[in-house]
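FW: tagging you since you asked about this chain on Friday. Here's the raw sequence from the shared folder, copied in full. Didn't touch anything.
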Amino acid sequence: MRDNSAPGTPVVHGFPHLDTVRSAITALYRRLSPDGVHRYGTSLVPADAAFLDTDDLHLGAQRVARALVQHLRLPEARMIVGFRTMEHAASVELTAGPEYFIELNDRFRTHRRDIGAALAHEITHVLLHRLGLEFPGTRANEILTDTVTAYLGAGWLLLDAFREDATSRQKLGYLTPEEFGYVLAKRALAFDEDPSPWFTSPQAYTAYTRGRDQALHDLRRPPLTAAGWAGRRRYAKDRRYAQDHPGTVADPGVPYAFETGGAGPRVSFPCPTCHQRVRLPVRGRVAARCGLCRTRLECDT
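HL: got it, structure written out here
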């Protein structure tokens, strides 16, 4: 797991990995199915990841690891946690199991409050390994792991590990703080859950609110009826242009695209929940349901 805690290492902000994050959410729904995703409807509670300075280091790490294994519904998976000097925050040895060896950076010996965050990412690697779900390339695969950790209810720990002040900084994982906030907000909307009371880091809460704004924007893009006046006006203009110029490529700056066929014009756009593309006829107000995550969509096409 990537560690941005070294002196002089800048923390990247914003949403540079948003396309990969959305692809990861789609891939998760495809692999687990909506029913499988909804088995994770309750997040890991703070008490299960709590780590006091008076706790025995190794016994405490094993306890938190067991809680994460149970939360992520990993059967017969025993995590053996050790500590050593290393460049990254943590690593896991992916084997056939049933034992997995996780190594944490030595600095977690004295930064115990973030051991749960590091373990959450590494144990999600084990889950994805068992599911056979991966993206090509190290960076994309790490973004997938961060996204799944957050979407399945353990990744609020990773965002809460983000702290930044005048003299020090810490951020774990490949996602930016705002992208972690975005995924957590997507989860909150899907499961009617508010993770904000669990944050102990003020910077984590700020990043979550910015990510939530981006997630809410997904719900207000045309052809969804919740789109604002400006979005609906732009959509109507693009629709007229597509009808007058069939076969033209959609503007990459908009989420929808128009298609022509024997059954008449259709519009495709990403589902605001799972980002699978939905295709509907262009015929006015219509209620639809995403074929992947089953979200009901109120649209004006």
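FW: The beta strands are 78-84, 90-93, 99-105, 163-164, 169-170, 257-259, 266-270, 277-281, 285-289, 296-300.
HL: agreed, and The longest helix spans residues 18-37.
FW: great, closing this out.
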